[in-house]
């Protein structure tokens, strides 16, 4: 290994006492390739097996916690015990590579395509979603969740945590990012409530924090202090109203006092500065590092393709660098850096070579359907 990348391979101990062997995380990435019954498919197992070697933490694709939270075709789901045997295989497959297996838990809220959830799209309010249109081409307007339904979804996060423990995962990640339901509750754009669950910034934090509480209660009951809990968030929205970075700093300050094992900031580029109004224009990762003040490790993601870029994330203040698209493109990224062969890292997606890198066919088709998403598909 090139000495300048040594820090990427330094172990770190999480607040719950678990040691992660290095600073390289594979970011959660949906494959759209589960079996039709929502169980983990063989193609997915091959995909994870090909990427697991040498990883510090491997965060899975998001699992839908509730039937009205399915967001992607071919998303695996966690509604009942029938999913357990295949989840067990997934956890085993990842752990065989030597890293921690973390199951990402998600509910899509107003982002769910109506045809995947019998048309009943729900959210923290009734704000129409220009990014979600139904089969007739009309903008989807969600239905506001009732208090009882909100409490049931919180329980769903707990139930899937319990399944993750039974399946042998090392931890879970709560998906509070990328505009899905948890973010919809935190956002003044989509949370138009005036009850316990909305209104002031404190009330908009109620749903996310209650989920953290529920997940931790399940872990306490299982007597699994070693079980890792992470929380992923997006730092800004570009709509008005919308989440501004100063509000995110308040959320992160609260989360850092909640006994979590890591926080995970979701960005398109790891070195972004706030693009909307903010008190400080310093790099967001650096500001997050400062407000966290050593209370909990920070994972950062966004256009990391080279070990230099991963090191830059650490220099800005992250404790872990997460790989997204490059981990799909080149399953041997970590092995190559470890062996000093970083010049051989592949950075463009090769549709012809997808089989050789165990990218499931449906995932490959999804990638190719969005030209420019992955380098090499423009
Ligand atoms: C194919 C694909 C699927 C993704 N699925 C998820 C997901 O299930 N959960 C999530 O939080 N983010 C998901 N993301 C976002 C990634 O975790 C990551 O934040 C994003 O790709 C930016 O990192 P990158 O620039 O290294 O690709 C997905 C990204 C890709 C490319």
From TrEMBL:
<dbReference type="Pfam" id="PF00724">
    <property type="entry name" value="Oxidored_FMN"/>
</dbReference>
<dbReference type="GO" id="GO:0010181">
    <property type="term" value="F:FMN binding"/>
</dbReference>
<dbReference type="InterPro" id="IPR051799">
    <property type="entry name" value="NADH_flavin_oxidoreductase"/>
</dbReference>
<keyword id="KW-0285">Flavoprotein</keyword>
<dbReference type="InterPro" id="IPR001155">
    <property type="entry name" value="OxRdtase_FMN_N"/>
</dbReference>
<keyword id="KW-0560">Oxidoreductase</keyword>
<dbReference type="GO" id="GO:0016491">
    <property type="term" value="F:oxidoreductase activity"/>
</dbReference>
<protein>
    <submittedName>
        <fullName>NADH-dependent flavin oxidoreductase</fullName>
    </submittedName>
</protein>
<feature type="domain" description="NADH:flavin oxidoreductase/NADH oxidase N-terminal">
    <location>
        <begin position="7"/>
        <end position="344"/>
    </location>
</feature>
<dbReference type="InterPro" id="IPR013785">
    <property type="entry name" value="Aldolase_TIM"/>
</dbReference>
């Amino acid at each position: 290994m090139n000495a300048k990348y040594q820090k990427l391979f330094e172990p770190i101990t999480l607040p719950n006492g678990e040691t992660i062997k290095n600073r390289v995380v594979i970011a959660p990435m949906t494959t759209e390739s589960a079996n039709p019954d929502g169980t983990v498919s063989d193609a997915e197992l091959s995909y994870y097996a090909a990427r697991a070697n040498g990883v510090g933490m491997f965060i899975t694709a998001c699992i839908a916690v509730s039937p009205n939270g399915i967001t992607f075709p071919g998303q695996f789901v966690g509604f009942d015990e029938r999913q357990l045997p295949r989840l067990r295989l997934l956890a085993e497959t990842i752990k065989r590579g030597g890293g921690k297996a973390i199951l990402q838990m998600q509910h899509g809220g107003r982002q769910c395509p109506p045809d995947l959830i019998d048309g009943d799209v729900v959210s923290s309010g009734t704000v129409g979603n220009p990014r979600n249109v139904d089969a007739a081409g009309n903008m989807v307007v969600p239905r506001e969740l009732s208090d009882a339904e909100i409490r049931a979804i919180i329980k769903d996060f707990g139930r899937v945590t319990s399944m993750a423990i039974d399946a042998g995962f090392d931890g879970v990640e709560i998906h509070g990012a990328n505009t899905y339901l948890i973010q919809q509750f935190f956002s003044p754009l989509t949370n138009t409530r005036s009850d316990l669950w909305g209104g002031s910034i404190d009330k908009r934090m109620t749903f996310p924090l209650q989920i953290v509480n529920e997940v931790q209660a399940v872990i306490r009951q299982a007597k699994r202090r070693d079980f890792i809990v992470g929380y992923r968030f997006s730092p800004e929205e570009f709509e008005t109203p919308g989440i501004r970075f100063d509000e995110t700093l308040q959320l992160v300050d609260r989360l850092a006092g909640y006994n979590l094992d890591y926080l995970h900031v979701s960005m398109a580029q790891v070195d972004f500065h706030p693009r909307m109004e903010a008190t400080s224009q310093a790099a967001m990762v650096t500001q997050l590092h400062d407000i966290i003040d050593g209370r909990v490790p920070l994972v950062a993601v966004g256009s990391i393709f080279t070990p230099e870029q991963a090191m830059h994330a650490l220099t800005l203040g992250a404790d872990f660098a997460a790989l997204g698209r490059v981990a799909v493109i080149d399953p041997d990224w970590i092995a190559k850096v470890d062996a000093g062969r970083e010049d051989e890292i592949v950075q463009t997606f090769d549709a012809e070579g997808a089989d050789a890198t165990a990218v499931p066919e449906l995932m490959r088709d999804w990638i190719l359907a969005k030209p420019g998403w992955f380098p090499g598909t423009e």
